[in-house]
């Protein structure tokens, strides 16, 4: 009997010690979101910029990352874990730890609804409202496999964060279009972006912003313009409707589709833009074709 009691006491002490000192979070919030992990991740990045002291997201994958939020005199770590249920639903688990008051929170949470819990829930309710509003502003549809276009083109190479891709395009649209028009270069299709490197770990993007053109003897020689030929290749295709700022939501949809269907791809999307944002209009009527190249069998 004494042995049984000793084992029970040891287990109880072990559980208490684990809860107070080893448990990875002080509090956990779970909710469902009508979005895929990549969209949630990008929305957290945008939401994170609204805090007074912005600390970059600690990226692991689009389904797992850490956010650091300064709340009054405390540093809160939000450990996001997102599980995709299907192409329009994810289960979100957020494990929250207060680095400054962790022990006090763990002692209080089981017995009362603390300010720490209330504040954490409010923040995540605010985030969920932002996410729900965001997903109303775009649509993505997957259209299986298709050959990309082939064209000669004039390009400007840019390096930005993924969220500043559209800003880089807008800053160079008049520059590229103007020089080509001045030299009577004939355009041969809508503008497009060719991603050269999508560095998720460091939140960096390297890409060419291009205009398809008819090759001629009048091509202007400018240090910021490169001429190249785009060759067709087999790719997964999606159609995105919405503001070009967030067209990378289609990239994540294609990544998920490729993983689900065991398709090896190159994470170098190509986007073809069929509307001029300078004209304005309903953003849900703007159309972007998005291609994710499929790796050749010998690669």
What does this entry look like structurally?
The chain has 299 residues and is α+β, with helices and mostly antiparallel strands. Helix content is 30%, strand content 35%. The chain folds into two domains: 21-136, START domain (Alpha-D-Glucose-1,6-Bisphosphate, Chain A, domain 4, 2-Layer Sandwich), CATH 3.30.530.20; 141-293, Multidrug-efflux Transporter 1 Regulator Bmrr, Chain A, CATH 3.20.80.10. A hairpin with a 2-residue loop joins strand 3 (64-71) and strand 4 (74-86). The chain is elongated. The N and C termini lie far apart (67 Å). The relative contact order is 0.14. It comes from Flagellimonas chongwuensis. Residues 156-295 form the GyrI-like small molecule binding domain.
Determine the fraction of residues in helical runs and give it as a percent range. Answer: 25-40%
Largest sheet: 8 strands, antiparallel
State the CATH architecture of the largest domain.
Alpha-Beta Barrel
pLDDT < 50 stretches: 12-23
User: Regarding CATH, which class of the largest domain?
Assistant: Alpha Beta
- Can you list the strand order of the major beta sheet? 6-11-13-12-8-9-7-10
Q: Kindly report the average pLDDT value.
A: 88
Order of helices and strands: HEHEEEEHHEEHEEEEHEE
- Terminus-to-terminus distance: 67 Å
Number of DSSP strand runs: 13
Give the number of domains.
2
Q: Write down the Rg.
A: 25 Å
CATH superfamily of the largest domain: Regulatory factor, effector binding domain
What would the CATH topology of the largest domain be?
Multidrug-efflux Transporter 1 Regulator Bmrr, Chain A
Percent strand: 25-35%
Oligomer: single chain
> By helix and strand content, what is the structural category?
alpha+beta
- In one word, what is the shape? elongated
The number of helices is 6
Organism: Flagellimonas chongwuensis
InterPro entries: GyrI-like, Reg_factor_effector_dom_sf
Protein name: AraC family transcriptional regulator
Pfam families: GyrI-like (PF06445)
């Amino acid at each position: 009997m004494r042995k049984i009691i000793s084992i029970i006491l040891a287990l109880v002490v072990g559980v208490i010690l684990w809860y107070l000192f080893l448990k990875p979070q002080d509090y956990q919030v779970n909710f469902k979101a009508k979005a895929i992990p990549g969209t949630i991740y990008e929305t957290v990045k945008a939401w994170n910029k609204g805090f007074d002291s912005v600390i970059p997201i600690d990226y692991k994958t689009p389904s797992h990352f850490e956010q650091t939020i300064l709340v009054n005199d405390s540093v809160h770590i939000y450990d996001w874990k997102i599980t995709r249920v299907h192409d329009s639903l994810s289960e979100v688990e957020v494990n929250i730890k207060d680095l400054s008051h962790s022990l006090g929170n763990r002692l209080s949470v089981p017995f009362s609804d603390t300010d720490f819990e209330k504040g954490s829930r409010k923040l995540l309710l605010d985030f969920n409202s932002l996410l729900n509003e965001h997903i109303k502003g775009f649509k993505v549809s997957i259209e299986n496999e298709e050959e990309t276009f082939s064209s000669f083109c004039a390009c400007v190479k840019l390096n930005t964060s993924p969220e500043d891709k559209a800003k880089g395009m807008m800053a160079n649209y008049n520059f590229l279009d103007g020089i080509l028009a001045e030299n009577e270069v004939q355009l041969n299709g809508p503008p497009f972006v060719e991603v050269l490197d999508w560095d998720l770990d460091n939140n960096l993007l390297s890409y060419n912003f291009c205009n398809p053109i008819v090759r001629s003897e009048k091509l202007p020689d400018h240090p910021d313009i490169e001429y190249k030929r785009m060759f067709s290749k087999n790719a997964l295709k999606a159609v995105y409707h919405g503001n070009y700022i967030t067209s990378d939501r289609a990239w994540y949809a294609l990544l998920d589709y490729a993983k689900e269907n065991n398709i090896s791809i190159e994470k170098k999307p190509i986007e073809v833009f069929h509307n001029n944002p300078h004209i304005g209009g309903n953003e849900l009527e703007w159309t972007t074709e998005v291609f994710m190249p499929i790796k050749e069998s010998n690669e």
